[in-house]
Amino acid sequence: MIANKSILAIIPARGGSKGIPRKNIKMLDNKPLIAYTIEEAKKSKYIDRVIVSTEDNEIAEIAKKYGAEVPFLRPEELSKDDTPGIEPIIHCLDWFEESQNFTPEYIICLQCTSPFRKSEHIDEAIEKLINNDGDSIVSICESEISPFWMKKIENNKMVDFLEKSEFYARRQDVPKVYQLNGAIYITNTKVLREIRNWYTDNTLPYIMNKESSLDIDDILDFKFAEVLIKEKNNVR
């Protein structure tokens, strides 16, 4: 809790995954991928409860082993490839309001695929959101690829992706641009209920570095994460 405001962390973790089968519980070094997120969420100074939302019994048991609550199994219809990411969050909110008469002031969504996101990042993002009276805050990182240098193909010819974009001859001169890294989403619960989205005109950025922003989407990302974990272990 921060400023007398309760914070509920939701970790969505469905069983299906096309890129990497059973990705959320695939072993990364010596523990399942989901464990990294659960452990860091539980270290947070401000998060009151850590919930895993899943339709999968095996994931539920592993989540409980690492200290998360799994008070319900998510309906199968909210666990499909094309299910909008916000739907399991709304479902979790509905469940708590209906079954426990509990509505947190803030919701934080932590995806399993960000194993290098630490509790310090989570707490810094929470503090920035509360101290700046934002509607929400979303984690980002600096993009390595600038849209100012991107091209698209029209009529079998390359043209600028951005129309009438300025020309930058040197990389150093290109304006910084940022991309979502998928690590942290926090919002005021009332706002989320109203718009069913993480973004408003009052959404704040929380900038993370490249390593902490690694988002595991495919097997190459997973192999890179394995390399980083081994390097970190060797440094200790």
TrEMBL record:
Coiled coil: none
Pfam families in the cross-refs: CTP_transf_3
Keyword Hydrolase on entry: no
Sample GO molecular function, one term: N-acylneuraminate cytidylyltransferase activity
Keywords: Nucleotidyltransferase, Transferase
Domain of life of the source: Bacteria
Signal peptide: none
Name recorded for this polypeptide: Acylneuraminate cytidylyltransferase family protein
Organism ancestry: Bacteria, Bacillati, Bacillota, Clostridia, Eubacteriales
